[in-house]
Amino acid sequence: MAQPKIALIGGGQIGGTLALLAGLKELGNVVLFDIVEGLPQGKTLDLAQGGAVEGYNAHLSGTNSYEGIAGADVVIVTAGVPRKPGMSRDDLLSINLKVMAAVGEGIKTYAPNAFVICITNPLDAMVWALRQFANHPAEKIVGMAGVLDSARFRHFLSEEFKVSKEDVTAFVLGGHGDTMVPMPRFSTVAGIPLPELVKMGWTTQEKLDQIIQRTRDGGAEIVGLLKTGSAFYAPASSAIQMAESYLKDQKRVLPVAAYVDGPYGIKDLYVGVPAVIGENGVERIVELQLTAEEKAALDKSAGAVQGLIEACKKMDPRL
Ligand code: TXD
């Protein structure tokens, strides 16, 4: 049977890691695209040789031409520039918006049926713009941020409680940025919500607040340490989980940046919400009953995303 085709647009730190994970997990054949000549060809040749040792048989190839992504089932976009220390995600806006215009054109021409996962920052605005440029159906294009943000939250919680990360679930709503909304009520250890764990004496509210802040700053903490780029291993794992749910019709309930037009009172925005990802892409957006405080935090976050989208519209008359 024909293997699914996975096109990775952007062959940098995340793109290379995505190719490795797609190979190790036998998700399909991989085409890595980048504008830098030799980079995607070199990385995929290296990875293909690793297949002889690791035992994966996926076909991996690199290209500098959009024709190479023709007929892709999944497209994962990391093209653009990452943050440098001191730079906010929003500083990236003008550079990466131009990149999204080119990538959108490529997807429209060569991969109109693909499930598209955008990772490029500032995430929520870039996925909104990419959808416009690609003229792609809303349920077939999402942004990756919530899986990563909740993975960070789960990691810090598992360290605090000294329990397996597997038994920690965590929910994060809203935009990927300083206004993200971690949701303690819907985050649990083996089904026990965090507020209960505070009552049970497993942690204190103060400690929990610190963990929430560290989660919000999770990306910046890594940028500060690396100095020459941003996180890439966990972001790649997160996007691969989303791609796998689509390709295998797993119907995982994952926090993703989805097109929201109605739920949560939000109109025409990409923002982080829990969603069911299956063979049709976003099959359902889960609308939680929020408290007034949670709703206010989500509205603030959605407002920040809206502001970035307005800035994009001013920069590019096609939007
Ligand atoms: O949670 C999240 N969404 C994120 C997002 C978590 C971590 C990092 N996040 C963002 O992903 C980050 O801020 C960047 O915007 C992207 C990609 O991060 P990565 O670390 O992979 O960046 P690299 O290593 O600089 O790779 C980017 C590649 C590089 O090889 C460029 O040559 C290429 O993108 N590039 C392009 N490819 C195709 N087409 C165009 N126009 C282009 N411009 C640059």
TrEMBL record:
Residue ranges occupied by any Lactate/malate dehydrogenase N-terminal domain in the UniProt entry: 5-143
Reaction it catalyzes: (S)-malate + NAD(+) = oxaloacetate + NADH + H(+)
Chain positions recorded as substrate binding sites: R83, R89, N121, R152
Record-annotated Lactate/malate dehydrogenase C-terminal domain positions: 148-310
Active site: H176
CDD domains documented for this protein: LDH-like_MDH (cd01339)
Domain of life assignment: Bacteria
Coiled coil spans: none
GO annotation, biological process: lactate metabolic process; tricarboxylic acid cycle
GO molecular function: L-lactate dehydrogenase (NAD+) activity; L-malate dehydrogenase (NAD+) activity
EC number: 1.1.1.37
Keywords associated with the record: NAD, Oxidoreductase, Tricarboxylic acid cycle
UniProt-listed Gene3D superfamilies: Lactate dehydrogenase/glycoside hydrolase, family 4, C-terminal, NAD(P)-binding Rossmann-like Domain
Keyword NAD annotated: yes
Positions of NAD(+) binding: G10, G11, G12, Q13, I14, G15, D34, N96, I119, T120, N121
Pfam families in UniProt: Ldh_1_C (PF02866), Ldh_1_N (PF00056)
Family designation: Belongs to the LDH/MDH superfamily. MDH type 3 family.
Function recorded in the entry: Catalyzes the reversible oxidation of malate to oxaloacetate.
NCBIfam families reported for this sequence: MalateDH_bact (TIGR01763), PRK06223.1 (NF004863)
Protein name from the UniProt record: Malate dehydrogenase
Organism: Rhizomicrobium palustre
Upper taxonomic lineage: Bacteria, Pseudomonadati, Pseudomonadota, Alphaproteobacteria, Micropepsales
